[in-house]
Amino acid sequence: MSKKKGLSLEEKRTRMMEIFFESKDVFQLKDIEKIAPKTKGITPMSVKEVLQSLVDDNMVDCERVGTSNYYWAFPSKALNARKHKLDELQKQISEAKQRKVSLQKLVEKAKVGRQDTKERSSLLKELQALREERTGQQAELEKYRECDPEVVEEMRKSNVVAKEAASRWTDNVFAIKSWTKKKFAFDDSRINKAFGIPEDFDYMD
């Protein structure tokens, strides 16, 4: 003989609602825990969980008085709660269908022009050739960039600034050499050797 199948959560919820509808009374949790297993076949361990799920869905009202919670439910409110839940679900389904249609349209739109036709293959080859040609032209342009009048002028200005800076440093070196000669009576070759100054050190032309 096969083992009797237990009640599903929805079956437990329905049977628990019957307790409230049939009695039209107010209960504490301990009352439901006694009644539900005996009259509706709901296991004692699941009574609290099932009851809380009904409260969360506004099917059962709960009010705390002192240290105890009291539960009750009326058919009219339960009906309205179910209707509200059903309306929400239908709205979600409708929105999901609309999103699906929109996505399908986007997919179809994305496919347009991507068919592997001879014309498309030819255009892709032409596009690749143009890209390669552009890359080659840019490389060629860099070769001749040194002859660009603006680049030449910029280089000339940079050379002038560099030459002026070199002249200032040369002035400083000769000033130090002059001071060293007077202070220590060293000749040029000894000073050059001590400071690592080339023998042909002079101003730039």
TrEMBL record:
Provide the Gene Ontology terms for cellular component. nucleus
Q: What's this protein's function?
A: Required for proper homologous chromosome pairing and efficient cross-over and intragenic recombination during meiosis.
Q: Which residues form a coiled coil?
A: 79-147
Mnd1 HTH domain ranges (all copies): 16-75
InterPro entries xref list: LZ3wCH, Mnd1, Mnd1_HTH, WH_DNA-bd_sf
Designated name of the protein? Meiotic nuclear division protein 1 homolog
List the PANTHER family hit by this protein, alphabetically. Answer: MEIOTIC NUCLEAR DIVISION PROTEIN 1 HOMOLOG
* Alphabetized UniProt keyword annotations: Coiled coil, DNA recombination, Meiosis, Nucleus
Q: So what family is this one in?
A: Belongs to the MND1 family.
Gene Ontology BP term (one): reciprocal meiotic recombination
Q: Where is the Leucine zipper with capping helix domain?
A: 150-204
Give the organism, scientific name: Seriola dumerili (Greater amberjack)
Q: Where in the cell is it found?
A: Nucleus
Top-rank taxon? Eukaryota
Taking the first listed entry, what is the main subcellular location of this protein, grouped into a coarse class? nucleus
User: GO terms for molecular function, please?
Assistant: double-stranded DNA binding
